[in-house]
Amino acid sequence: MQANSEEYCELCGSPIHGKGITMSYEGSIITVCNSCYNRIRKHAVIVKEDNKKSETQKKTTPKPPKMADTELEIVADYYKIIKNAREQLGISQQQLAQKLKVSENIIKRFESGKLKPTISQARQLEKILGIKLVTPLENEESEKEFDETELTLGDVVNIKEGKK
Ligand SMILES: [Zn+2]
Prior knowledge:
InterPro entries: Cro/C1-type_HTH, Lambda_DNA-bd_dom_sf, MJ0586. GO terms for molecular function: DNA binding. The protein is mainly alpha-helical. It folds into two domains: 1-51, no CATH class; 72-163, lambda repressor-like DNA-binding domains (434 Repressor (Amino-terminal Domain)), CATH 1.10.260.40. The protein has helices at 34-40, 49-60, 78-89, 93-100, 104-111, 119-129, 142-163, and strands at 21-25, 28-32, 45-46, 72-74, 134-136. Helix 4 crosses helix 5 (104-111). The termini are far apart. Zinc ion is lined by residues 9, 11-12, 14, 32-33, 35-36.
């Protein structure tokens, strides 16, 4: 293992060859060269090497792959599922729109696949229609999240307009 960068003595400023000595000296933690260590050792306390190592390891250890249980997405054929379930229940797009508290146009766009429901809308649709629309997202794709945020904002506007 090579040192990633050359260390310099924090007392005399000369490069430290090999391992520096990390010490607690006059209230601060410093890394010093051997000669400075010999000079100040009576007044300083060596900081345990273990502490330093574990701290560095925490920073450099790559994160283990997360189980993305919070990441959710809408199933690809959501529009078919919504349309089929709505028709089976025998309710109109308008009725579904009222239940979901959105404009009828939103339902039309859902069912034509032009507009993807937001996660919260999909959750409501799941309850209303007794279907499954939300599925856990396996790989982390944050860009999709952004798209959904934009849709949410657009839908809020639509809801407001539809109520007027
Ligand atoms: Zn020194």
